[in-house]
Design brief:
This protein is mainly alpha-helical. The protein has a domain of 40 residues. It contains 3 helices and no strands. Helix 1 packs across helix 2.
Length: 70
Amino acid sequence: MTAPMSRRLTRDTRHKVIAGVCSGLARRLGISRNGLRLAFVISCVLPGPQFIAYLVLWVIMPADDRPESW
């Protein structure tokens, strides 16, 4: 079962691998973190601005402010 959708789009700092962008997007969309990470890695073999989009989201998405015990 997935967690309910949060209201704001934030980077998930508790379940991050690099910056928490994929984890935050997955939490907001209500899908699997690892599934979204896998989709991102697979999309990197296709032409396009995937890395640039990731970097931009890293900069503009605020980190979540949830307590560690959450």
